[in-house]
Each structure stands twice: as C-alpha cells, then as structure tokens.
Amino acid sequence: MLDKIKELLGEELSKQVTEKLGTVELAIFNDGSVVNADKHDLLKAEHKTLQDQYAESNKKIEDITNVAGESDTLKEQLKILGEEYNTFKADTTKREANFNKGTVLKELLRKNFNPDAVDLLANTFNLDELILNEAGQIVDADSKIKTLAESKPSLKLVEVIEGTPPVDKNNPSKVDTSKMTDEEYFAYKKKEE
C-alpha cells in the first residue's frame, strides 16, 4: 500500500502522507479511490455474501426447473422464486451503483468542504438521483457543489488570505472585523491562533 502511495505521490508527499496516516491501513480501489482497510474488508465480505446468495438462488432455480416438469405447483414456485431472484439482483445492482456514487461524492466533498463535515454533507444527497458519467464523475457536480456551498457556507473550505487586516480607526491597535467577509474573518481568527 505504501509503495503505491510513494509511486503516485513521490518521495516527499508520500512521507507526509505516511506520517499523517500513522498505523491506519488503507485500501485503493481500481478507480483510484481510497478507503480505510477495515471498511474495505467489510465491503468485500458483504460482496462475497451477495455472490454466495446469488449462486444459491441460481442453484435453486436450476433444481426447481429440472424437477418441475408439468406440475402447476412447482411452476408457481418457480415463478415466485424467479421474481424474488430478479428483485434481489436489482437490489444488489442498485446497492453497488450507490456505493460507487457515494465514494465519488465524498471525494468531491472532501475537495470543497471541511473534511469533518463530509459524511454529514453526503447524507444530504439522494444517491438514487445522482448520475455518474462514463468517466466516473457526477453529472452536473459543479452546480450541486455550488448549491450546497450557498446553503452551508460555514462548512466550505476557507482559503487563508495573507495581508494586513483592517484596523479600527478609533483604536489603531485593534483590528476592525466588522468590514471583513466571513472568509477574511475566519482566516484572521485562524491566523491569530
């Protein structure tokens, strides 16, 4: 894993990443997204369970088909089982698609908002309504991020603005924060700490 990070980021950045991660183990998906290794193992186990259920359903359908013959009861059971199977397959496909959408969405949110608020913000989206294009990106992502930033401005990442803050004319040693924008104020407060 660390070799992959070093390969992608270079020696200097990989050293910084390794220091920040400490003992946290990560897994990299084929699409380049990164998740906690424990979460990856849990998702992998869940996927294995779904595959086993899928194989079991196929076996049941095959067994019933072989035995069915002319029996109306068995034909009805086969029809019901086929409907259950189709429902299960559709649900599995939807869950996998929503997982992929959620991964892309959280990465997009990490780039634009406070990292501590990513999960909270991700829950404001209905994954069923999001569409991924062929490149694996959310369609109309800029518009969605802009709308979210307008509704939750306090969670947006703030760029630190260098320079001298405005001074109170009545008391030159005191900074006049009343004329600052929110971004300037937060940058000023962060600089004071």
Structural summary, described in words:
- With 193 residues, this protein is mostly helical.
- It has 2 domains: 45-154, no CATH class; 158-193, no CATH class.
- The chain has 7 helices and 2 strands; from the N terminus they run H-H-E-E-H-H-H-H-H.
- The protein has helices spanning 2-9, 11-21, 37-68, 72-112, 118-122, 141-151, 182-192, and strands at 26-28, 34-36.
- The protein has a two-stranded antiparallel ribbon.
- Helix 1 packs across helix 2 (11-21) and helix 3 packs antiparallel against helix 4 (72-112).
- The longest helix has 41 residues, at 72-112.
- The model has no long low-confidence stretch (mean pLDDT 77).
Q: Quote the beta fraction.
A: under 5%
Low-confidence stretches: none
Q: What is the oligomer described by this structure?
A: single chain
Number of helical elements: 7
Summing up helix and strand content along with how strands pair, one would put the structural category as mainly alpha
The domain count comes to 2
- Biggest sheet: strands, sense, closure? 2 strands, antiparallel
Radius of gyration: 26 Å
For the largest sheet, list the strands in their spatial order.
Answer: 1-2
What are the salient characteristics of this protein?
7 helices; mainly alpha
SSE order and pairing:
Layout: H1 2-9, H2 11-21, E1 26-28, E2 34-36, H3 37-68, H4 72-112, H5 118-122, H6 141-151, H7 182-192
Antiparallel strand pairs: 1-2
Helix pairs in contact: 1-2, 3-4
